[in-house]
Amino acid sequence: MWTAGALRIAAGTALPIVDQHLARAPVRLMSGTDHTAPGDEAPRGTPGTGENLCRECNGTGVVDHKPCPACEGSGKVVQGVGGA
Predict the structure, then answer these.
(1) Contact (Cβ atoms closer than 8 angstroms) between residue 68 and residue 37
(2) What is the b/e burial string over 9-40, where b = at least 16 CB atoms within 10 angstroms of the residue's CB?
(3) Beta-bridge mates of residue 49
(4) Which stretches of the chain are assigned E, i.e. beta strand?
(5) What are φ and ψ of residue 20, in 5° steps?
(6) Could you give the CA distance from residue 73 to residue 54 in angstroms, rounded to a whole number?
(7) I need a labelling partner for 66 at 20 to 30 A (CA). Which of 27, 59, 73, 81 fits?
């Protein structure tokens, strides 16, 4: 069992999907760091980069009831950190 705030969830407990848009979002398994979404500036794990919320969908993964084209429905993109 783990606790998130005041919510206690037992291991193996099925949670209902609250947002039907998320229920239809594609689920992808990624192998390593070779996949980049259109909104990524570099592959995941590249030194000097980090995950950020997608600006196209504000981190929801959905735009106009469809998976976000920039982050491919993940709600996250890889961006450069810092600057020169």
Answers:
(1) no
(2) eeeeeeeeeeeeeeeebeeeeeeeeeebbebb
(3) 80
(4) 2-4, 7-9, 49-53, 62-63, 66-67, 76-80
(5) -65, -25
(6) 10
(7) 81
Opening angle at CA 49, ends 48 and 55, nearest 5: 150
pLDDT the model gives residue 51: 94
Range of the domain at 57: 33-84
Q: What is the pLDDT, as a whole number, of residue 83? A: 67
8 A C-beta contact, residue 60 and residue 66: no
pLDDT < 70: residue spans in the chain: 1-34, 83-84
Phi-psi region of 75 (alpha: psi -120 to 50; beta: other; left: phi over 0): left
Residue 78 lies in a domain: yes
Task: Name the region of 21 (left: φ>0; alpha: ψ -120 to 50; beta: rest).
Answer: alpha
